[in-house]
Amino acid sequence: xxxxxxxxSGFEASxxxxxxxxxxxxxxxxxxHVHPQTELSILFVDTDTMTxxxxxWMDEPGPTDVLSFPMDELRPGREGDxxxxxxxxxxxxxxxxxxxxxxxxxxxxxEEMLLLTTHGILHLLGYDHAEPEEEKEMFxxxxxxxxTFLASR
Length: 153
Prior knowledge:
This protein is α/β, with parallel strands linked by helices. It has a single domain (about 1-150), classed as Metalloproteases ("zincins"), catalytic domain (Collagenase (Catalytic Domain), 3-Layer(aba) Sandwich), CATH 3.40.390.30. The protein contains five helices and four strands.
């Protein structure tokens, strides 16, 4: 897998371990049976950049925690039947927003950003949470993937 992690956020409150995010992404994609030659980009940005993206692409004011920009509209595969290789897309995260949410959730900023990364990758794979059943499925899957990843570290 080609996973590029770039930190343009200037976030200093908690160090961003780019290797940890690449490992998480690799784990999630393997668990979702995505072709090993698939490409993914993870980008950490500052609040102003996230605000601009949020307004431009979602027509919503202010910054958000994570945005996903799918490219080849790949979907999860199954055991023994991986997806075709392709460009999965970009996950863009705002550590400042994640830090605020982490306080509310009662865990570390790093844990919040790992959760948001998993969430963003699932969006790239076609998962959504607009409807209650979709939310239940997506949130259960992201929880299971993240807990399994963290337990393996």
